[in-house]
Amino acid sequence: MRIARFSIDGNVAFGAVEGPVSSGGTPPGTQPDDQLSINIIKGIPFAEFELSGTKVPLSKVRLLPPVLPSKVVAFGRNYAEHAAELGNEVPDAPFAFFKPSTSVIGTGDPVPYPTFSAELHHEAELAVVIGRMCREVPRERVAEVILGYTCANDLTARDVQRTEKQWARAKGFDASCPLGPWVETDMDLETAADLAITCTVNGELRQAGRTSEMTHKIEDLIVNITEAMTLLPGDVILTGTPAGVGPLNVGDEVAVSIEGIGTLTNKVIKRG
Question: I want to staple 99 with a disulfide (CB 3.0 to 4.6 A). Which of 11, 52, 103, 175 is the partner?
Answer without folding.
Answer: 103
